[in-house]
Amino acid sequence: MTDSASTRASATAVAARTTGTVRVVGAGLLGASVGHALRAAGVDVVLDDTSPAQLRLAIDYGAGRAARDDDRPTLVVVAVPPDVTADVVARELAAHPGAVVTDVASVKLEPYLALRGRGVDLTRYIGSHPLAGRERGGAIAARSDLFVGRPWVVCRDEETSREDLALVEGLALDLGATPVEMTPEEHDRSVAVVSHVPQIVASVLAARLREAPDAALGLAGQGVRDTTRIAASAPELWVQILGANAGPVVDVLDALADDLRDVTEALRAPDAAGSRRAVADTIRRGNEGVERLPGKHGQNRRFEQVVVMVDDRPGQLGRLFGELGELEVNVEDLRLEHSPGAQFGLAEISVVPSAVGRAVEGLTERGWRIASTSNDG
Description:
There is one protein chain. This protein is about 45% helix and about 15% strand. The protein contains 14 helices and 12 strands. The termini are far apart.
C-alpha cells in the first residue's frame, strides 16, 4: 500500500462509528457486502457460515477473516435466511454475552415473536433490515457499496438502550445507509407493499411470457423488462420471505385483486357507460402513486425525459455523458433500451424540466439524434 493510500485508509478508519470486532454470520450477498464495507472502513470483520465453501469464498474475496477462539465481538450481524434467523440470533446472544446482536432479515415480526416465545433475553437484540439487494446472490455478488443511499430499518423496543441503538445505527451509517426507526409490525406492513407484493406481481407477469410466441417476445421493450426485472429472484428465498410475512402480503394482494377485477370488468364491455372512466381512473391512480415515490435525494420531484439514440459502438455512452456535462446538464436518472437487431440503443435520460431545452439543443448541435422528449405531445 502506498503512503497516500495508507493515509486514506487510516482516515477512513478513524471516521468509522463502528469499532472493535464485528462478527458477521452468513457470508452470502448481504453478509459479505457488510463485511466488504466495514473492512473498507478499517473495521475488523469475522465471518462465519454453515457452508465451508461459501465461507472460504467470502474470505478469499476479502469480506473478512476466519473466526478465532479469542474473538470478542462488540457487534454481531446475522445475515441468514428468514427460517433460521431466530435460531441463529438466540445462539449468538448466548455465545457472545458482551455483544449487541442484530439481524438483516427481510421480515422482522416473526423472528422477534419466535425469540420472545422461547423466553430469550432480548435486551441486546435489535432487529434491522437494509432495503438493498441484487438479483444475484452469494459472496461472489457482494459489493461494498450495496447499501449506499438505501434505507436501513432499525426496530427498537422499550428494552433497547440508547448505546445499543447507536451501535446498530452507526453500522448503517458506516455502510452509507440511512437509518429509519420502525416497529416490527410497521416494517412488515411497509415491505409487503413496496417489496414483497411487487415480487409476486413481477413473477406472475413474467410467467405469462413462458408460453408467449417468439414473435411476441421479439417485440419486448423496456416496459416489460422494467416490470419483470425482479422476477429473476431465487424462489427458495422468496418462499421463506413470503411465508413469514403472509398476513400483510395477503392484505395487499386482496386489494390488488379487487382493482384488477374492476379493470377486467370494465374492459369486458369497453363501450359501456363508465368503462372508459374506470380504466382512466386506474391509470391516474397509478400516476399518483408513482409521484409519491421518493426521487433523487429523497425528494418527491418530477423530471423530464430526453431519449437519445446511441450507436452501438464502444465509448458512445461515455461521450454522451461527457457532452451533457459540458452543457451543464445533470443526469438525474438513466434507463437504457437495446432494440433487437438494431445497431443502436435508446438512452432515456431524466433531467430537471428547465434543462430539457438546453440538453436537446446542445446535443443536436453535437450530432446526437434525439428520439423524443417527455413533453413532445
